[in-house]
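[Meeting: bench + compute handoff]

Bench side (C.D.) handed over the final construct sequence. Compute side (W.E.) agreed to return the predicted structure before the next meeting so the bench team could plan truncations. Sequence as handed over:
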Amino acid sequence: MKTLITRCPWCLSSEKMKNYHDEEWGVPLHDDRKLFEYMLLDSFQAGLSWSTVINKRENFRKAFKNFDPEKISIYGKKQIEKLMQDAGIIRNRLKINATITNAKAFIAIRKSYGSFDKYIWQFTGGKTIINKWKSLQELPSKTIISDKMSKDLLQKGFKFVGSTICYAFMQAAGMINDHLISCYRYKELKNFH
């Protein structure tokens, strides 16, 4: 007999969303390339649903050279126009331009701090903040920490990194465990180091 597992309700709309929830969301992440990928995807999500971004993720991977900040940082007009014609991604000129700007700012942070990982995790003191939410209604869309992160990223030249986007990034990158306490991943990640 198959055991029913309880997941966070937000991921139940598709297999892709369930897989993302089960395998990635909330897992503490320390790989610079992956952190850049999450930052890029979260900035494209602004004003849209996360499932829209997840469904286009592989197209984003191709369009943005496997999320390589060095390659993206040198995109010029030709690449921007090509991206604007790419129906596989979210075609928003402001977000595309912001991605190029963000790639440059990401590289600068990495040079200053040794790694983007070292820089970004300072906002949570290098540890995952473990919340104890019982329902999705309890989850905040931003916090004092995401406000600080947003302000700092903006000062360092990033665009499309408002506090709400930063909070979503922190959830995805495992800087915060926002799985509901009823979700099977909550306990698994609570003990994850």
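W.E. noted at the follow-up: Residues 25 and 172 are 5 Å apart (CA to CA). C.D. will use this when planning the next construct.
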